[in-house]
Write a structure and sequence with these properties.
It is built from seven helices and no strands. By secondary structure, it is an all-alpha fold. The radius of gyration is 25 Å and the shape is elongated. The model is unreliable at 1-5 (pLDDT under 50).
């Protein structure tokens, strides 16, 4: 429980927390660091003889208003959100590139009649989307690393471009992936009972859900 003399500090932090959007851990770290800094300032004022309430007021004013603090903090959260999205996409896209064909190997229908040309085009498109997503994820991590080292405004534009590209790739991946699985089940009834296909569909669903959450978090952090 906060001490009664810390009420102004807590109110200031609650206002900041309500207006910040981004990765929960990074947001918590920012607020914790801010709280420590505020309480240190309050303690310094009190040691110099300033009454508790006035000490808090001075510390809060000195620390900065939400309007002054939020732009830089939100930018940091947006960078963290892009890092998380890029890392998830890198891992999932790499698995998709490497393991995508494993769902078909040894299937009873693999030696049967050749599937339609449009189906083969869709299958190839899924693979290329995973490759594109992987490369964009690498670009995202490079942009994030550069943003940490440099305040150049162009990097913020690059972050938005990469994040938008990753979100677009996610949408394309979901549409083409679902279409490919659905078409496969329609073409080969045995696919409904083929364990690698079932496992692949479940894992793909989990991957899309995880990426959707990360993309939504980035969009919310960037929109603020």
């Amino acid at each position: 429980m906060p001490r009664c003399e810390d009420v102004l500090v807590d109110e200031h932090l609650r206002e900041l927390a309500a207006r910040l959007h981004g990765p929960a851990r990074l947001k918590s770290d920012l607020l914790t660091e801010a709280r420590h800094g505020l309480l240190d300032a309050v303690e310094a004022y009190r040691e110099s003889g300033v009454p508790p309430t006035e000490a808090q007021r001075r510390a809060v004013v000195e620390f900065g208003s939400p309007a002054e603090l939020l732009p830089s903090w939100q930018a940091e959260l947006a960078t963290g959100a892009l890092r998380g999205l890029s890392l998830r996409m890198l891992v999932i896209a790499a698995v998709g590139v490497v393991a995508g064909d494993l769902t078909w190997q040894g299937a009873s229908w693999s030696d049967g009649s050749r599937p339609p040309g449009l189906y083969l085009l869709l299958s190839t498109s899924v693979e290329w989307i995973w490759w594109g997503s992987l490369l964009l994820a690498v670009a995202g991590l490079l942009v994030v690393e550069a943003s940490v080292r440099s305040p150049w405004p162009g990097l913020a534009v690059a972050q938005r471009a990469v994040g938008t590209g990753l979100s677009g790739m996610l949408v394309l991946g979901m549409l083409t992936g679902c279409a490919l699985f659905t078409w496969s089940f329609n073409l080969w009834e045995a696919a409904l009972r083929w364990p690698p296909m079932i496992i692949g569909a479940v894992l793909a669903g989990g991957a899309y859900f995880s990426l959707t959450r990360a993309a939504r978090g980035w969009l919310l952090a960037t929109a603020r």
